[in-house]
Amino acid sequence: ITIFLISSFTFVYPQLQEYSIVNFKTVPGLPTKIAYSAFKDSKGFMWFGTEDGLNKYDGTHFSIYNNQPGETNSLSHKWIEQIAEDRDGMIWLGSKNGLTRLDPKTDDMNQITTGSDDRIALSNDTIITLLASGKYIWVGTHNGINRVHSQSLMNTRYFPGGNNINCRIHA
Questions:
Q1: pLDDT surpassing 90 at residue 161
Q2: Is the model's pLDDT at 136 over the cut of 50?
Q3: Strands, E assignment, 72-162
Q4: CB distance 78 to 66 below 8 Å
Q5: 164 or 92, which is more confident?
Q6: Cβ-based neighbour number of residue 15 at 10 Å
Q7: What span, in angstroms and rounded, lies between the C-alpha atoms of 90 and 117?
Q8: What pLDDT sits at residue 108?
């Protein structure tokens, strides 16, 4: 996989930018050849969502996060397509089987799916888009929008029809 890492350098002309290309091999780099999402967090780490989990790149090494079926302290699904960061530095991951909140300091994870407690359950497990805004994570799914409180995980669901939402949301 070839990834374009963009760095802005301000010289005399602020519109000039330097681009560097880094080519990662599947071994010892990314475990798969395809990254479905790439995200640079507030600390400068690069996160890559693949069909076999999440990968964090610190500039030298990759850390790999996998789905462990039956384990609640793991990714909700191995196929990660959406990545966002909230104002507290938590990393949010959207997949084909729900949402995962990852604390990058401790590697603790919380899964949020349609099967979760009703106060936090999603309207659908297929995550289309994520948006961090203030104290909320907005989650677009195949069946409505969810507004998840970033700390308590309490969720307000907005379904098609009743709340004038009649299609999937893409950002």
A1: no
A2: yes
A3: 80-85, 91-95, 98-102, 109-112, 127-133, 136-141, 144-149, 155-158
A4: yes
A5: 92
A6: 7
A7: 21
A8: 96
pLDDT at 3 > cutoff 70: no
Nearest to 139 by CA among 119, 113, 162: 113
How would DSSP label each residue in 110-132?
Answer: EEE-TTS-TTT--S-S-EEEEEE
Burial grade of 135 (CB within 10 A; 0-12, 13-18, 19 or more): middle
* pLDDT per residue as tens digits for the range 35-77: 899 999 999 999 999 999 999 999 888 899 999 988 989 999 9
For 43, phi and psi rounded to 5 degrees?
-95, -5
For the cut 80, the answer to whether the pLDDT of residue 23 exceeds it is: no
d(CA 117, CA 154): 10
Residues near 81 by Cβ (< 8 Å), separated by ≥ 6? 36, 37, 49, 94, 95, 96, 127
Residue 63 sits at φ, ψ, to 5 deg, of: -110, 135
Buried b (16+ CB within 10 A) or exposed e, 2-13: ebeeeeeeeeee
